[in-house]
Write a structure and sequence with these properties.
- The chain has 341 residues and is α/β, with parallel strands linked by helices.
- The protein has 2 domains: 193 residues, no CATH class; 125 residues, no CATH class.
- The protein is built from 12 helices and 11 strands.
- It is globular, with a radius of gyration of 22 Å.
- Bound molecules: iron/sulfur cluster (SF4) (2 copies).
Length: 341
């Protein structure tokens, strides 16, 4: 793996050069929020921020997406599924928790048996440049409790770490190495920088103050689907869906057909297990009748079913659901309470 040193004041120019040839998505300030957006001409990405409000998964798995178009004709139906048209892109400034969410989403969307061509096409055309969290994290960050780290490169193609006057630039994958030309002839990192990196990584891990027993609760969940505990956690929940829509690992969607005259589209939109309609069946039966069953599903999906299916917890500890839940429902507290059952 190539490790180079980049003078900090050169980074903005490199991103600008990349954006002349491909799409660049990056964190920018929008009113009071930091949001991942397509970088428009003349705008520079934010380099000094904790994390964005929206999760960058949206560039691989958009909120709404047309899967197919169709036209009814006298002879039947003409379908145009079409290839997924995707441009080369760079996702710049992704925090390690969010980059890790891509590795978790890959497990679902690119299985041996089931492949999602829409997600895969974007993933294959996009280079992820991650920025290690070396500055104080949010009090709600808990990446180290779910197998992550503030300086991890998992899910990224290139990892940048602020080591003082320079960024330590790690070209992790061959896709990342393809961008070497934009970085120019950078000096190689030596032993001194490796030592510095280790020190900074250790310090960053210590800065994460929120620790939860996320890895201990799977056996408890295995045996407590009907536990009275589930009656207690959901009462405040407004079913607004904020937690799932901001979550970098949530991936539920709904597929519907929208027709006008003879033409129609098949479209998929994000959906949320927090919504009453999510499991409403055509017959009128709804197997998840209250918020109790919906909240249990959210916890089970992240901390049991994903572990059963893919061997990983489907939470990267970004803390967005904790920060933005309007009634302060805190998944960390729920995990702690489950560990005590
Ligand atoms: S953000 Fe809070 S109130 Fe809204 S659905 Fe999630 S847990 Fe319920
Ligand atoms: S469950 Fe909450 S903390 Fe975990 S990845 Fe989703 S939004 Fe982040």
């Amino acid at each position: 793996m190539e490790k180079r040193l980049l003078k900090k004041d050169k980074l903005a120019g490199i991103i600008k050069n990349i954006s002349r040839e491909m799409l660049v998505y990056a964190p920018v300030k929008e009113e009071d929020n930091v949001l991942f957006m397509a970088l428009k001409e003349g705008r520079e990405p934010l380099l000094d921020f904790s994390n964005s409000r929206n999760a960058p998964k949206t560039f691989f798995f958009p909120r709404t997406e047309i899967m197919m178009k169709y036209t009814r004709t006298g002879k039947g139906m003409e379908l145009s599924t079409g290839e997924v048209e995707v441009r080369e892109a760079v996702l710049f400034g992704v925090r390690p928790c969010d980059a890790r969410s891509f590795a978790l989403l890959d497990m679902l969307f690119e299985q041996d048996k089931y492949k999602d061509p829409y997600y895969i096409a974007r993933r294959e055309k996009t280079t992820v440049i991650s920025m290690a969290c070396v500055h104080p994290p949010y009090s709600t960050c808990f990446c180290t409790s779910v197998d992550g780290s503030p300086t991890s490169g998992e899910g990224a193609d290139i990892l940048l770490m602020d080591i003082g006057d320079n960024y330590l630039v790690e070209f992790i994958t061959s896709r990342g190495e393809k961008l070497l030309k934009y970085f120019g002839d950078l000096p190689k990192a030596g032993e001194a920088e490796e030592t510095l990196k280790k020190e900074i990584a250790e310090r960053a891990e210590k800065e994460i103050k929120s620790h939860i027993p996320a890895k201990d609760i799977k056996p408890i969940l295995d045996n407590n689907f009907e536990h009275p505990f589930w009656e207690t956690i959901h009462r405040k929940c407004l079913a607004c869906g904020t937690c799932t829509y901001l979550c970098p690992t949530c991936h539920c969607f709904d597929i519907s057909d929208e027709a006008k005259g003879s033409d129609g589209i098949r479209i998929r939109n994000w959906d949320s297990c927090m919504y009453p309609l999510f499991t409403l069946e055509t017959s009128g039966h709804n197997p998840r009748t209250t918020q109790k069953e919906r909240w249990r599903q959210r916890v089970m999906h992240k901390f049991k079913y994903y572990v059963d299916n893919f061997g990983a917890i489907s939470c990267v500890g970004c803390g967005r659901c904790v920060m933005y839940c309007p009634v302060n429902l805190d998944i960390r507290k729920i995990v702690e309470d489950i560990a005590k059952l």
